[in-house]
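Session log. Operator J.P. requested a structure for one protein chain; no other inputs attached. Running the standard single-chain path with token output.
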Amino acid sequence: MRAKLDGQWWLWFKNLIADRIMQRDEHQLAAAFDGFLHNAEEPSTAEVLSLASSYVHCSFEGEAIMTVGKTVDFAEKGLSGIVSVMPFTCMPGTISHAILKKVRRDFNNIPFLNMVYDGDEQATTQIRLEAFMYQAHEYMNKAGQQAEPVTP
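Structure written below.
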């Protein structure tokens, strides 16, 4: 998008071709999971940016705006909880985490877990995941959805 805004048409065209190739590869890989995964279809980059536009201006580039847009996508698709994983001191992750507090409120306080990793094992990880799973299950039940049994 930046290339188009800056009038760099060759770079825009190159990015368009690369995007088409990656979409083809993604569809080929995802085909193996047809019928097994719900809500597996990924929106385009433009759609993700559009979904994030209520929270972040489109000129804000990088991972943070994509994280916000994808979180909105998940919430709109009816997921019962969202986990965001980021490395310790990750600036885009820190920015998106701050913005996602508003996204969470806008989507009926959907359960959200922000996990930060620094390479060391954290003693509270399992407890946090268990609490998140409980919240997601309750959120799902409150929304009137039926829990699907998990089969290996």
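Operator note: DSSP finds six helices and two strands in the chain.
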